[in-house]
Each structure stands twice: as C-alpha cells, then as structure tokens.
C-alpha cells in the first residue's frame, strides 16, 4: 500500500495521485481484546463495508492502570512481551492485505496523566515503535488518546518530531479529549499533518453533566460537529476530521443508564454534517465494537447492548459507505461548504441543510425531511437525484432549474427522514 500525504490545497488526503477519502472505524482495543481469527473477521467485515482506516491503540492499559482505565482490556499484562508485539504486527499485516490503514495510538492519554510515559522515557518508547513498525506502509500515527494536551504539550511535541524525523513518509495527527480539537495545541506544528477533533457523545442539552469529563472545556458545540471543521480551517491550514463523534448504540452523555442511545440516524447526521462542511473524511464507531465487548468482562461499558460480534452488523456501519461513494463520484477535493445556496439562510440545529458544492456538483443533506429551497442557478440543466443515506439508492428527479424546492418528506419511518439531494 502507498503512504498517504496531504493534498496541495491542504484540505484533503491523497494516496499517490488519487484523492483519499478517510473512512475509519473505531477499533480501539483490537490488539488486546480479541484473537487473530476474530481480528480477521472484524477487519474483513469493515473492509467489505468500504472502510479504509482502523483507529486502534497499542497500549490502552497496564496493571498499574487497571483501576483507572476500567474498560476491559485483555492485554494489560502482555505489553512487555515479545509475543504481544508479534501479535500486533500480524494484525497490521492482515489489515494491509485487506487494503486497510491502521491509525495507531502509541498509548492512551491516561498513561501520561499517571506518569507512566514522561518526557524522560517517551523517546525510548518512540524509538522502539519506530524501529519495529516503520517498515509497514499502512500505518498512520495518532498521538494523544482522549486527552487534553495542556500539561503534556512538550512530551507530545517531542514524540511527534521524532516520528516525523524517523518516518517522514508517515502521516501524524493527534486524537484529543471530548469536545476538543488537536488544533487547540498543535495548529502550527510542522510534525502534525492533519487535525482531529472529538465532537463527543452529548446532546445539545447536555452541556454540563457534572461528570468527570466536564472540567474546563473551552468549546462546546453540542451536536453541531460541523462547527469544529469550520473553526479548524480558521486557525490551521491543515485537513481535519471528526475522529470520535457519537458512537452507534452508546448512551447519550455516556454516564447515565436512564438516557437514550445514539442510533444509526444520528450517526449518519454526524458524518454528512462534518464532511459537507469540508472534513477530509469521517470516523464511525460502535459502542460494543470499539471495546470488543464480551459478556462477563468487567469494567465500564457505557450501556453496551450486545457483544461485539453481533454489533458488527449494526446498520450504521453499513451506511457509511454511501457517503464515501458519493464523495468519490465527484472532484470533492475542489468542493467546499456552500451555505449561501440555502434560500432564506442557513437553519439551526437539526433543521440545518448541510450543503457541499463544486463547479459541477451540489450535495445537500437534510436531516429532518422538511421543506427547503436551494439557489441552483449555476447548475441549471444538470441531473438531480434524491439519495437515501439509509440504502444508498438513487432516485432520479429531473433537470435542475434556477431554484430547487424540496417538499416536506412524508415518510412513515421516523428514523429515516434524512435524505441527500444530489446534483451533478
């Protein structure tokens, strides 16, 4: 597989001379919690659904952190074993054969918070990883791991610079804490090739839950993950993407079992909203799959509803490919968010009509299925379709005129009111 690089316009990723639309799945604990046979089944499932990146962490927990990182991790007693790292390499090779890049976190952020990784030893670990894994072309390095970098900026800079020096052909980014973005700390750092943000798992009305992850968040956009994309392009001339939106079948807000779950319709909304704002791709996640949950495992599971092998087939994971195929059907690298096409101005919250347009195409995502109008005077005469983000089906409308008026979407299925207008 070819190494990836950033496009000339600094907004997207490239694989050789071809544009690369990042479509990742969150498989954080693949190395510690499942066997290689199970790993193949997982990777094959995701590759067949159009995913091309797997986000995974090499060291999530250790014996010292089992009481802190309570999500079950079966490899906590193996990280110093040669057997474990051979296991890691076999899974990386497996992914490569299936056409998947591995976006690897050297560790979860808690290892820095608890002084297991420090300024004094971070390059010892970095050198070990570089010497062991630099030979694999399907690796992307992801520093961080659900952490605010405030107190650890220089440690991450030290590791990032080292990785870029030793592996200049590998992309490097940073996975931040919920409702934060890597651009908050590393917007101008040359070792960071593209930004990630974590829009998180909360509703509009869950701004302050009083839980452990409420302290000192400088920005809160609720469910408006597209705002992180917009802000990143104001402060950093680098591609960006939502590396952790709300997972399918995870509790809204994470901590309260009385709350409802995020489901496929919301998962789709996060994907279309951020990508149509100009993100270079999107990361999907499922609660059970990201931790490879098995019944009887101890630890926090955020209200998991089934084991991971059943969750592999949740509908949202199969619907992400329709967005990827749609973007790949046009010259998306030269497209941009185009709110100005919404007649009467852009709408708030769930009523938002997310519009992404280029010289020869327009995509408009409507979550609620309400009436709206677009100024399509620059696209007169082009073909139009409704695309279902649930099935990917394209339904021809006709030729485009100066203004397109979408009638209210009368559907019986309340979960499937979203739709995509396609003009090209």
UniProtKB/TrEMBL annotation:
<dbReference type="InterPro" id="IPR017853">
    <property type="entry name" value="GH"/>
</dbReference>
<feature type="domain" description="Putative collagen-binding">
    <location>
        <begin position="340"/>
        <end position="423"/>
    </location>
</feature>
<feature type="domain" description="Apiosidase-like catalytic">
    <location>
        <begin position="7"/>
        <end position="333"/>
    </location>
</feature>
<dbReference type="InterPro" id="IPR024749">
    <property type="entry name" value="Collagen-bd_put"/>
</dbReference>
<protein>
    <submittedName>
        <fullName>DUF4038 domain-containing protein</fullName>
    </submittedName>
</protein>
<dbReference type="Pfam" id="PF12904">
    <property type="entry name" value="Collagen_bind_2"/>
</dbReference>
<dbReference type="Pfam" id="PF13204">
    <property type="entry name" value="Apiosidase"/>
</dbReference>
<dbReference type="InterPro" id="IPR025277">
    <property type="entry name" value="Apiosidase-like_cat_dom"/>
</dbReference>
